């Protein structure tokens, strides 16, 4: 699969590169940024870096696409947005995460809207799901504004999430 780049008014979305790692590491070790997504990584810096570099080298596929989200003007890494096939959720999991210093700027919605549009145009899937903790008000607002509808609750490792789904419009 060709590795697309997406541009919005303020953002550049592209395949992750090794130079994104330091900001990514800051995000995945931040207990506040990772509060609703499984908590900070338990991997060491070296192990997480090796995994990140492996992910950078793997091409996008019809089972997983994860864009690095960068501020267009500065090139600053803001976070990630994409999807992966998820057996646990029983569908194509739409996912994203952002460095805490980028919260509240509208980047999450801007990137998510562009990525979702790309996924529906480029892939044959008819729906995507997103697991969102109801206490994560910002994510609830993003998925609802995108058109996701709450379908059910799921419990994973003693945490309850609302599962949202969006379907391809005919």
Structure description:
By secondary structure, this protein is of the alpha+beta class. The protein has one domain (6-167): Aminopeptidase (3-Layer(aba) Sandwich), CATH 3.40.630.30. Helix content is 28%, strand content 33%. It is built from four helices and eight strands, in the order ββααβββαβαββ. A five-stranded antiparallel beta sheet has the order 1-2-3-4-5, with helices on both faces. Helix 3 (107-122) crosses helix 4.
Low-pLDDT runs of 5+ residues are none
Helix residue percentage: 25-40%
CATH class: Alpha Beta
| Spatial strand arrangement across the major sheet | 1-2-3-4-5
Order of helices and strands: EEHHEEEHEHEE
Shape descriptor = globular
**Mean pLDDT reading:** 93
State the fourth-level CATH superfamily: Gcn5-related N-acetyltransferase (GNAT)
Classify the beta-strand content into a percent band: 25-35%
Number of domains: 1
Strand pairing plus helix content: what structural class? alpha+beta
Number of DSSP E strands: 8
N-to-C span: 25 Å
Indicate the CATH topology.
Aminopeptidase
CATH architecture: 3-Layer(aba) Sandwich
- Radius of gyration in whole Å, from Cα? 15 Å
Biggest sheet architecture:
5 strands, antiparallel
Count every helix, treating DSSP H or I runs of 4 or more residues as helices. Answer: 4
């Amino acid at each position: 699969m060709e590795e697309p780049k997406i541009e919005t008014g303020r953002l550049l979305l592209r395949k992750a590169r090794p130079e994104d790692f330091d900001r990514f590491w800051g995000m995945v070790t931040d207990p506040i940024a990772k509060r609703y997504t499984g908590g900070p990584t338990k991997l060491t810096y070296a192990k997480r870096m090796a995994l990140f570099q492996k992910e950078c080298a793997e091409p996008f596929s019809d089972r997983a696409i994860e864009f690095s989200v960068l501020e267009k003007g500065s090139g600053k890494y803001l976070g990630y947005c994409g999807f992966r096939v998820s057996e646990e959720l029983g569908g194509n999991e739409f996912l994203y995460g952002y460095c805490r210093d980028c919260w509240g700027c509208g980047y999450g919605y801007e990137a998510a809207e562009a990525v979702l549009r790309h996924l529906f145009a480029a892939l044959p899937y008819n729906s995507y799901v997103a697991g969102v903790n109801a206490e994560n008000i910002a994510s609830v607002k993003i998925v609802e504004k995108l058109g996701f509808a709450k379908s059910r609750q799921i419990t994973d490792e003693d945490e309850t999430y609302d599962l949202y789904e969006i379907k391809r419009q005919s």
